[in-house]
Amino acid sequence: MKDVQPLKARNQYVHPSLELSPWPRQGAAQMVTVTDDMSDFWPWDELEQGEQLLFVKAGLRLDTLRKLKRGDWQIDAELDLHGENTDTARIKVAQFLALSVQKNCRCIRIIHGKGLSSKEGLPILKLKLKNWLAQRDEVLAFAQANPFQGSAGAVLVLLKSGKKDK
Hints:
β2 (77-80), α3 (86-102) and β3 form a beta-alpha-beta unit. 29% of the residues lie in helices and 14% in strands. By secondary structure, the chain is of the alpha+beta class. α3 packs across α4. Residues 25-33 have low confidence and may be disordered. A 5-stranded mixed beta sheet has the order 1-4-5-3-2, sandwiched between helices. The chain has helices at 22-31, 62-70, 86-102, 124-135; strands at 54-56, 77-80, 107-111, 139-144, 154-159. 23% of the residues are buried. It is built from 4 helices and 5 strands.
């Protein structure tokens, strides 16, 4: 390497410095409060044994819920909450909903599990998810998944369309 001489620099291009976008910083700041509207204290605090998750916002046709239960909508995204505790699950659900709306997803599936590995053997996240989803503005309806989509361990969620009419 003694005889090696560096090349003479000709026509060097100076890359302009990139300014950081304010969006990532704003997004991180907003994530702190994104779960504020996902309270655990809700009028329904219990699920009967074998009760299905069903919800539709006021003003929507019941046909919407029937179509959701039948699996008429294509599932655009999925979140698996297996192994999560209540606190981490709440954050993941909030982030997943925000991302799904941003990506214009119409129907999503959230797998909460059947609670087989919980201390009581009960689906704790199923009840929490029911409460959280009912409180979110972007959620129009949700229903327990069909056997071929996850059955009692998953819920299908119909979201507001993110597209704006001009």
